[in-house]
Amino acid sequence: MKIALLPKGRYVVAVSGGVDSVVLLHLLSQQPQLELIVAHFNHGIREDSHEDEVLAAKLASQYDVPFVSERGQLGPDVSEATARTARYQFLDRVLHDHRAQAIVTAHHEDDMLETAIINVLRGTGRKGLSSLGSHEHLLRPLLHVKKEDIYAYAKANQLEWHEDSTNQDEKYLRNYVRQSILTKFTPEQRAQLLAIIDKAKQLNESIDDLLNTELHLAVSADKLSRHWFIMLSHSVAREVLLGWLRQKSSGITVDRKTLEYLVQQAKTLAPGQRISVNKDYEILVGKEGLALKRRDR
Predict the structure, then answer these.
(1) Is the model's pTM score more than 0.90?
(2) DSSP 8-state secondary structure symbol assigned to residue 7
């Protein structure tokens, strides 16, 4: 199994101790132009999670690369989203502390398919089919590798890894999708879904280019033209408002219900009114434009 050669530089490799990240580290270690840093985040979710940390440290020692770890106290009932946020916050700190070029994770083809199915089940927006979630300075060299090929590589190279005991618990939606839905897909159905994901990605890139062009024309002095916004169809206004919010602050996230509310309010409220986005931000409705402001503390 081969992956693309990464440019010369320093990279933070996220190693959980599972087979995916163990294989990723083994493959990257064969690229002599890379300076690797093994980073492990112990979520504190499982009682045996310390064993994963020990293995990650052992692998770093075997490959003679630096090891950085952090322990969270998230508890067994934490949501997948909260755990992911804590993990990436840690990886971001390692990235900046070590002045690395990028974070490298072991997401693979099955992860991409699982995410697409999950997003459909939850009621996805236009990007749900094409995205594992964007993150600045993130590389995923295994994204077109099947899980079964990862296992085969690990066994052929006699690699040591740990199986996460929670991966069998179908109370987690991702595990249910993996074990009860994706396993029933034929090779042809997998290929069809992958083709849909790729097409959705291309369409989203084209839509984003158009939206960015429109936003550039509609934003003046950091304000979004209200007259222009009111004239948009609801579906286009929704995408425009979301794009504008993300341009203004990358940390803003809104669910579909909140976005629908924001669009309706932004089109109908009288000038001088305020629209709550979240606990940190609000939109000020002006006669000529919409302005995003951080709330006073």
Answers:
(1) no
(2) P
